[in-house]
Amino acid sequence: MLVLHFITKTELGGAQSNLLDLLGARDEGLRHIVCGGSEGWLLDEARKKGIECYVLPELLRRINPLQDFRCLLGFRALVKSLQPNLVHAHTAKAGVVARIVCGTLRIPCVYSPHGWAFSPRSGRLLRALAAIVEFALAPLTSVAICASAEEKRIAKKFLVGRICRCEVILHGCPDRIANESRINGDALQAVMIARFAPPKEQEFVLSAFAGIAGDYRLLFVGEGPKMADAMKRCGELGMTDRVTFCGSRTDIPEILSESAMLVHASGYEAFGLSVLEAMRAALPVVATNTGALPEVIADGITGILSEHGDTQQFRSAVETLLLDSELRARMGRAGRERYLQEFTVEAMQEKTLRVYKSLIVAGS
Predict the structure, then answer these.
(1) What are φ and ψ of residue 337, in 5° steps?
(2) Do 28 and 166 reside in the same domain of the chain?
(3) What counts of helices (H) and strands (E) characterise the chain?
(4) Are residues 330 and 355 in the same domain?
(5) Same domain, yes or no: 92 and 164
(6) For residue 141, what is the domain's CATH number?
(7) Where are the alpha helices (DSSP H) in the chain?
(8) How many structural domains is the chain composed of?
């Protein structure tokens, strides 16, 4: 079975990390190929696994009618040349191109939006446009893989989930703990791992931490267009001696091993991969109760959920964990147990392969 994966951006991010983990799936006769819009982290890592990779530079995230038409032709030529059993498209723009091409060639197309473009994270105009596009493409979607029940609910709300088959497959990540002795440690470092771009809310986190007394450090991992604004806000709040902006990093397990908790604030979250990585590392999580986060975090058991936009409630949750090492350890252990039960990469791979095989059998 040959599966061609198609994704717009190849820089380090949640969708890219999820796809890389999926490439580790093994089954008799299974072969993966990846095509992206540019060279980048994902293709570099895929090649290290021996995966054949292609670049289609006409695949751009922004709308460009001429380039988009060229992209359709280029991807169609690639699909005809490789003759995959199915195409798995990741993220919105790649999903549009792949479903149109697969529809004309009568090839099954699996689509993972990694957060619907018509979700609450988007502006009103974009949501309306995305809803129209996804509704039109739904008949060409063999299976839409939703990262959470919340994503499936939104798909049904906009009728997409009533036209095409939607399967909920929770994200997973490989098991890795950099320093297991930290599980019962007292390091007072909080970390947020996220891109500096909407719907992530690093400035909200800064405002919440500004009112916390005591000895702590706050670490931000990630880059993005809003990073300069967050750094400016940090200076305005007089927090530069307590806050570190690390930029993009690949040693996430090591960073988590040195931290007391993960904090995560977002206007909307399709899943929250960094939250899962924290649970894997036996770290408690303080997060806003948006999107799928309540599905991932067991409130009061593996972490603490805060009302979105409530700075005082978020601050109080952080203070509670900073002051109680036993609570941090208990929630951390519960989070790791939850990860092992529900969020392993093996479970994600197995369920995805089951979807692939069902389509191959149906088309044979």
Answers:
(1) -60, -40
(2) yes
(3) 15, 13
(4) no
(5) yes
(6) 3.40.50.2000
(7) 14-22, 41-48, 65-82, 92-105, 124-137, 149-157, 160-163, 202-210, 227-236, 252-257, 273-280, 293-296, 311-323, 325-342, 345-363
(8) 2
pLDDT band, residue 215 (cuts 50/70/90):
confident
Provide mean pLDDT across the span 295-310.
97
Tell me the per-residue pLDDT of 109-121, one tens digit each, with 9 for 90 and over: 999 999 888 877 6
CA distances from 73 to 6, 67, 79, 159 (A): 14, 10, 10, 29
pLDDT digits (tens, 9 = 90+) for 30-84: 999 999 999 999 999 999 999 999 999 999 888 889 999 999 999 999 999 999 9
Q: What is the mean pLDDT of the chain?
A: 92
CA distance 322 to 336: 19
Cα-Cα end-to-end distance for the chain: 12
Same domain, 22 and 168: yes
Q: For position 178, what pLDDT does the model report?
A: 62
Q: Indicate if 17 and 112 belong to the same structural domain.
A: yes
Instruction: Give just the sign of the alpha carbon dihedral 244, 258, 318, 226.
Output: positive
104 and 228 together in one domain: no
240 and 145 housed in the same domain: no
The reply to whether the predicted model has a pTM over 0.90 is no
Confidence band, pLDDT 50/70/90 cuts, at residue 237: very high
Q: Which domain holds residue 93?
A: 2-172+344-363
DSSP 159: T
